[in-house]
Amino acid sequence: MQTIRGFRDILPEQIALWQKVEQEAAALFESFGYREIRIPIIEKTALFARSIGETTDIVEKEMYTFEDRKGDMLTLRPEATASICRAYIQHKMYAAEPFRKFYLTGPMFRRERPQKGRYRQFYQIDAEVFGIDSPYIDSELIFLLHTLLHRLGLAGLSAHINSLGCPDCRPDFQKALLNFLGDRKDKLCENCQRRLVKNPLRILDCKAQTCRQALEGAPATVDHLCPDCRTHFETVKNSLEKLGVDFMVDDTLVRGLDYYTRTAWEIQTTTLGAQSAVAGGGRYDRLVEELGGPSTPAIGFAIGFDRLVEVLEQLDDQTYEKRPDIFIVSLGADAQKYAFEWSCKLNTMGIRTDTDFRGKSMKALMKRANKLNAALVLIVGDNELTQKKIVLRNMETKEQTEIGIENLVNDLAQLIKN
Ligand code: ATP
Ligand code: MG
C-alpha cells in the first residue's frame, strides 16, 4: 500500500523544522493578541462554493467533494478562511466583541497536479482578523508575516501588494477591463471566454500563456479606486514604509479567490521554481455578511507551510534534530533494570534520556550514543552496581567522573540543569 498521489508522509526526520516554524508562529501570533482556533477539515460544499466563488479554479476543478451516506454534499476544506467565517457566525462571536483575531495551522486539500511545492494535501498557517476595517490591520498582518519569515531566516523577501477596490469602484474597473478585452476575446482560453460573461475579474488570474499575453497592458484596479479605497491603500503603504517592511505594488496581483476586497498581497521567493508564492492574503470585507452574518470587515493571510519548509531546508544545513541529554549504556540484566528506572524518572523530569535494552555490547552501545549525539553517557555494569558508583562520561570533553548510586537521578538532574 502507498499514499495516494499528491499526498505524503512527513517523517520524524523532517519534523523538527515543522515544529520550529509552528512554535515561532504561535509565539508571534500570541504576542500580537491572536488566539488559536481549531475547526473541522470537512464542511458542507456550499460553504466553499459560495465564498471562494463558483468560477474560481478551486471550486471549478480542485475540490475533494463527495456525497456522504445520507446524500449530503461535503468537501475537504481547500482553505481555512471560509470555515473560520462559518465558525465566527455560528458561535455569534461578533455579539460580545466583533473585533477578533485568530490563527490556525492545519491541512488543506486541493486536487491539483502534484509537483514540488504543490501537493493535494498541504498545510497552511493562517491568521485572520474580524470586525475592523482600519488599514493599520492590513499593515499589521503584512508586518506579522514579514517578521515571522525574517525570524525564520528568510531575508530579502518583498511583499507584492495591490488593492482590488470595493463594490463601489469595481463596476468602473470591470467596465474598463471588458472594454480592453473587447477585441482580444479570441485570444483568451476557453475557460476565460466563459468567465468573460460570468466573472471577468477572474481572467486576470488565469495562468494560461495565451491569456497572459492577451492581458498585457490591461487596466489596473489601482487606477480605478474610489476615494475611500485610495486613502485606505495609501495608509497601508505609508505605515509599511514606517515599519521598514519591503514591499512593491504589483498591479497584476488579483489572487485566486473571489471574496477579496481592497488590500491583497503575496510573498514570493525565487527558490521554489514555478511554485513561487509562499504566502498570500487579503481583505474580505463582504464575506461574513454574504455567508449570513452581520456586516463585518475582515482580513487574513495563509502561509504555505510545505513551501516554507522547502525554502528553509535549502537555506539551512543546520539540523534541528533534538539530541539526548544523556544516554545510558547498560551492560547485563541487572544494569538494564536500573537503566529502565533511571531513564523513566529522568525523562519525566524533562531530561531527555535514551537507552537501549537489546543487550548489545559496550562498543555497540557507545557507537549508538555517538550517533545520537548524546551530551553525556552513563555507563552501568555489574562492577559499577556492586561498588555503587557509576561512570559518567562527557562526550565532548571525554572527561569521566563517578557518580554515587544512592541519589543518582536527582544528582544527575541537578548536574544537567546547571
Ligand atoms: P498558487 O498560485 O501557487 O496556486 P494560491 O494562490 O492558490 O497559490 P492560496 O490559496 O493563496 O494559494 O494559499 C496560500 C498559500 O498556500 C500559497 O501561497 C502557497 O504557498 C500555499 N499553497 C497553495 N496551494 C498549495 C498546494 N497545492 N500545495 C502546497 N502549497 C500550496
Ligand atoms: Mg492555486
UniProtKB/TrEMBL annotation:
Cellular localisation: Cytoplasm
CDD domains from the UniProt entry: HisRS-like_core, HisRS_anticodon
PROSITE patterns: AA_TRNA_LIGASE_II
Pfam families, sorted: HGTP_anticodon, tRNA-synt_His
Keyword Magnesium: no
SUBUNIT field: Homodimer.
Family under the similarity heading: Belongs to the class-II aminoacyl-tRNA synthetase family.
Protein name: Histidine--tRNA ligase
High-level lineage: Bacteria, Pseudomonadati, Thermodesulfobacteriota, Desulfobacteria, Desulfobacterales
